[in-house]
């Protein structure tokens, strides 16, 4: 055998010459990757066979990007690293900061992701959900998506899907009870129960129902419905009369709701629905609720002055609001997303259909712009904003 090359014997007995710096030293090593896959070089060491369960345990400690690369080693490793049993043994705790995702095309089929550590964009395959419409909410490493099915008169929405976009595992949620027809689009919220290795999560849906039988046919109420992964059922959590919810968020096991009259109210338990109210800092501004490290964040946009403001709720009694920062909105803004310590705002210019991203750091109170995504495929025909979400990269899935 020539210097600088070595022989490798595979499961079919073929000899393949590969470059090596150890061949000149007359060394011989054995590395058994799996059953039927052996690499041989010249050493005096005996063959070492690693049990399959030990290999699986070692590989489960690797970070997700390395696991994805190791799937290319051989077919046996690809089968092992893609199996549901292996994914359930992977480290449940997050291995890096959350990643920001959003759809880059008009049909919500292509996804781009931004990692704040490296400040780089990359394409992300998100084809695990069969008939994805958009992303409604996210919590931890789970994402709540709308789902479509084909009917005689076209595609219609058919409930929700919860998935882990990293491991590609997903489940279809049962249909929520539909005794009432919603007058507005549902407002969704999601929370992960317990530590990252917990298998429990809740999905909360609020729908506005017109009631023609109440108060002379001029009344409406909000119906709250909750899905529990433990019982695998939807339950009706109660009604809230004469209000329309525009934003809803879970924070420290407390449900905070914001209605169309710009009133904030919350309940410590959905069983009794004993609501308490908190006065907003500015009443007549369109607002939205977010959650950050166990704190409620309020976003308000003043139309006349074109200012975007960020507030944080101080839960010490008496409740008060802390002003964190403000900026001038230079373009139309979409739904913001909390990604780690950063709020990501999507702004779109209607003429060129270009998408820009602006961030606000909740710790240092600074506004920054993100480099424009190079994978945008959206056109001016779609006037809606792309769905965006934040997700912790973890291979653990509770299903």
From TrEMBL:
<dbReference type="InterPro" id="IPR001810">
    <property type="entry name" value="F-box_dom"/>
</dbReference>
<dbReference type="GO" id="GO:0004842">
    <property type="term" value="F:ubiquitin-protein transferase activity"/>
</dbReference>
<dbReference type="InterPro" id="IPR036047">
    <property type="entry name" value="F-box-like_dom_sf"/>
</dbReference>
<dbReference type="InterPro" id="IPR050796">
    <property type="entry name" value="SCF_F-box_component"/>
</dbReference>
<dbReference type="Pfam" id="PF24750">
    <property type="entry name" value="b-prop_At3g26010-like"/>
</dbReference>
<dbReference type="GO" id="GO:0031146">
    <property type="term" value="P:SCF-dependent proteasomal ubiquitin-dependent protein catabolic process"/>
</dbReference>
<dbReference type="InterPro" id="IPR056592">
    <property type="entry name" value="Beta-prop_At3g26010-like"/>
</dbReference>
<dbReference type="Pfam" id="PF00646">
    <property type="entry name" value="F-box"/>
</dbReference>
<feature type="domain" description="F-box">
    <location>
        <begin position="44"/>
        <end position="90"/>
    </location>
</feature>
<protein>
    <recommendedName>
        <fullName>F-box domain-containing protein</fullName>
    </recommendedName>
</protein>
<dbReference type="InterPro" id="IPR015915">
    <property type="entry name" value="Kelch-typ_b-propeller"/>
</dbReference>
């Amino acid at each position: 055998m020539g210097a600088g090359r070595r022989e490798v014997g595979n499961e079919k007995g073929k000899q393949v010459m590969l470059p090596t710096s150890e061949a000149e030293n007359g060394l011989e090593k054995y590395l058994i990757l799996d059953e039927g896959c052996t690499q041989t070089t010249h050493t005096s060491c005996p063959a070492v066979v690693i049990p399959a369960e030990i290999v699986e345990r070692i590989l489960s400690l690797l970070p997700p990007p390395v696991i994805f690369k190791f799937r290319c080693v051989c077919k046996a490793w690809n089968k092992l690293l893609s199996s549901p049993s292996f994914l359930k043994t992977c480290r449940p705790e997050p291995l890096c900061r959350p990643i920001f995702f959003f759809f880059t095309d008009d049909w919500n089929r292509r996804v781009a992701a931004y990692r704040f550590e490296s400040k780089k964009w990359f394409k992300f395959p998100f084809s695990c959900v069969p008939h994805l419409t958009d992303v409604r909410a996210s919590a931890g490493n789970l994402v709540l998506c709308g789902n479509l099915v084909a009917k005689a008169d076209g595609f219609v929405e058919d409930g929700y899907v919860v998935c882990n976009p990293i491991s590609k595992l997903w489940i279809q949620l049962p249909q929520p009870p539909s005794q009432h027809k919603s007058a507005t689009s549902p407002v969704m919220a999601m929370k992960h129960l317990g530590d990252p290795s917990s298998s429990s999560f809740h999905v909360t849906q609020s729908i506005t129902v017109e009631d023609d039988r109440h108060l002379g046919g001029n009344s409406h109420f909000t119906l709250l419905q909750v899905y529990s992964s433990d019982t695998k059922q939807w339950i009706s959590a109660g009604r809230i009369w004469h209000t329309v919810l525009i934003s809803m968020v879970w924070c420290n096991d407390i449900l905070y709701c914001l209605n169309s009259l710009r009133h904030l109210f919350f309940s410590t338990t959905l069983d009794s629905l004993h609501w308490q109210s908190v006065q907003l800092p500015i009443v007549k501004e369109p607002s939205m609720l977010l959650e950050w490290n166990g704190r409620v964040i309020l976003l308000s946009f003043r139309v006349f002055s074109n200012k975007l403001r960020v507030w944080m709720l101080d839960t010490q009694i008496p409740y008060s609001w802390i002003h964190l920062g403000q900026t001038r909105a230079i373009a139309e803004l979409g739904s913001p997303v909390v990604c780690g310590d950063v709020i990501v705002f999507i702004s779109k210019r209607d003429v060129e259909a270009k998408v820009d991203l602006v961030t606000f750091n909740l710790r240092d109170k600074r506004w920054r712009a993100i480099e424009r995504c190079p994978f945008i495929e959206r056109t001016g025909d779609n006037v809606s904003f792309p769905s965006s979400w934040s997700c912790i990269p973890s291979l653990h899935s509770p299903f």
